[in-house]
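[User] Could I get a sequence and structure tokens?

[Assistant]
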Amino acid sequence: MPVPTPARPVIPRRLQKDAVFEYLVAAILDGTLRPGERLRDADCETWLGVSRTPIRIAIAKLEQVRLAETSARRATSVVVPRREVAVDLLAVGCALLAAVVASAGHDERTGLDRRLSGLVDDCRARSSSADGSVEEVDAVGDSWAAVWSAVDDHVFGRLAVRHARRLTLPLRHHLRELTADDLDVVADVFVEVRRSLGGGLVDAAAEACERVTSRLDLPDVARDGASDPLGASAVVEDRRVLPRGDDVARAGARATLVRPRLSDDVYRMILVAILDGTLTPGERLADDELTTWLGVSRTPVRSALERLDERGLVDMAPNRYTRVARPEVADVVAARDLYARLVSWSAGRHPTGGSADRAEIAAVTSRLLPLATRSEGAPATLTTLTCLGTAVRRLASVERSPALSRELDILEPRLAHGLISCGFGLPPSSWRTFSDAVRVSPGATGGGWGPAVAALIRSLSPQGG
């Protein structure tokens, strides 16, 4: 018979950069590349037999998933596993799980129960083992990854799963530092989650997910001044030392102490161009045109586009097209609701109870009242969203969780692009309601200011202006 000629290739074309990335990930997780080992371009070229460009793109992606880190002297090395990092990653993963549990249907709850059972068994096996073999640690990582296959049948679930799977790679790497007692705690909590799911108590199951790390003994790195291996006080991804804040607000910021990479500059320039409407939804992004416009070579442009694709601002189909994403309303609502849940969880996990903190936050919300009031009832602008994101992150003490801060750095540009493209904005009086709630709600009672933050974010809706 004649060879079929489908519209799309039956077997997807494999890109070198993807193959290199997956090979390096496997080498880190199986110990071929040891913690702290340098990743030199020339060594990787000789080892893998490919050119430098896919290696550089793959290593940059390793940094984005927190399996590699680069020092101020440009030395890139494999991240050293740490227990506090594992706990932080697990906490954010459980917050994501709580979000999807709360919206899960009957079939999803059944699938979750079955996969959580496997995770509990593997945690028990690892905690009762004397040596804690690599295979047992890998089994825990595999079971955690399998949990997410049960909850990606709708837009909200797919977005949460996308973030959870990004956390899974570094979590696998750092899991080896969790103790047997740690894994017993994790197993106990997920037994509680399963019990609640079996009884149809979805809210109780979600609350149990959120509590999983509150029972693990971990110092508050922001308050106690402990080591900060993932850079809670510095934006490692953008290669510069700045206070953590929203990625949209930082997009146009200038480096202060550490010279940023060229790809970081290119990323921020394209990001701002998309968010301010210079590059419109659906517009094609040709490498040659971008290199001419920005005055750089192709490699930093491709690296920047990869990051924008991960954040949902760019759609990429290899060897076919690269274009500015055109968000759908359902996608915007999913991103908005996930963002609301995460910052609300953070506010409850790290309540801001001091009178000085409450006074500062009340001052911030009052100072932003004139700007917010003028923008209410009309589609949001980049300026409005920048101010909103800064206040929300400060209120929710996001900086106390490096893993959450980075996930919001990825989620916020997606949300901002969707809100601006689809004409979402704050309804009248929403900011004043929020500001009043902040002034009267004590930081340490009833989940802190989480409900007020979540209500403000969920109020973002399509506006007629």
User: Anything to note?
Assistant: The two ends are 59 Å apart (CA to CA). The beta strands are 68-70, 76-78, 314-317, 321-324, 424-425, 461-462. Confidence is low (pLDDT under 50) at residues 1-6, 8-13, 219-258, 443-447.
